[in-house]
Amino acid sequence: MNFLIFKKLTRFSFLPLILSAFSALTCQVALADGVVVDKVYHPYVLPNEQEFEWRMLSHQNDAGNSLGQRIAYGKSITDNVMIEFYIVGERDKDGDFGLSAYEVETRWMMTDQGEYWADWGLSLEVEKVHELDIWEVTTGLLFEKEFGRDSLALNAFLIYESGSDIKNEFETEFRLQYRYRWLPQVQPAIEIYIGQDYTGIGPTFMGIQRFDGQKQLKWELGFITGLNGDDKDHILRASIEYEF
To answer: Which of 8-12, 69-73, 132-136, 240-244 shows the lowest per-residue confidence on average (mean pLDDT)?
Structure first.
């Protein structure tokens, strides 16, 4: 299944150009210091939408294993703008799990779904590291194009880190997801991530179960492998999101 998905992906003639541009940019700009792999965002907001979200990220490499989790609550404040609040926790080197950061995220759906040849959105995120003077502001361009049952999503982020406990710098990250909408509950995908000394690719599976009204449950599970030459560099990501 994954090979067939990747074969379909390569039929888009503009994809090699996009990847080449991303690779060129990541060679020229200082990139994010944290883990690059995370959720690939879609540029959609529902009117009167509320949601609870949980995310988990397990990163295993030659240096060991790290684990991070996020819990969030979000609400649309207009028909096309949503704001979401996150509490971030991480496991430290001693194996203890505790609070590590706070985040506020805003997403703006710039175009209605299907209004133009592609759907566009913007995101803005502000993060404060717990008990340290480290701030991170991230602005993102969100893109999605549907071809029948195929969907291509791109995220491009510009990040600025500042504070007395960190070097002030600009960074960039890029995420790509090709998804085949086989069934609402089961949608296989291929994801690509580019960031700080890191390029990763791997399969992801996701789905959505709809209930009454706009109540729905979304799930994602992905396994991303680093392509940086390390003997072991794997990331397992998972998320559950309930919208109502």
So the answer is: 8-12
How far apart are the C-alpha atoms of 208 and 37, rounded to whole Å? 21
Note every long-range contact of 4-11, with CB atoms under 8 Å and residues 24 or more positions apart, other chains counting: 5/178, 5/180, 5/188, 5/189, 5/190, 6/178, 6/190, 8/150, 8/178, 8/180, 9/152, 9/178, 9/190
Q: Is domain 2-243 given the CATH code 3.90.1150.10 in the classification?
A: no
Average pLDDT over residues 51-75: 92
**Average pLDDT for residues 186-204, to the nearest whole number?**
94
- Residue ranges of domains in the chain: 2-243
**CA angle 219-127-145, nearest 5°?**
45
* pLDDT one-digit tens code per residue, 132-166: 999 999 999 999 999 999 999 999 999 999 999 99
Contact of 223 with 215, CB cutoff 8 Å: no
Q: 88 has which bridge partners?
A: 70, 101
**Neighbouring residues of 84: CB distance < 8 A, sequence distance ≥ 6:** 51, 53, 72, 73, 74, 75, 104, 105, 106, 107
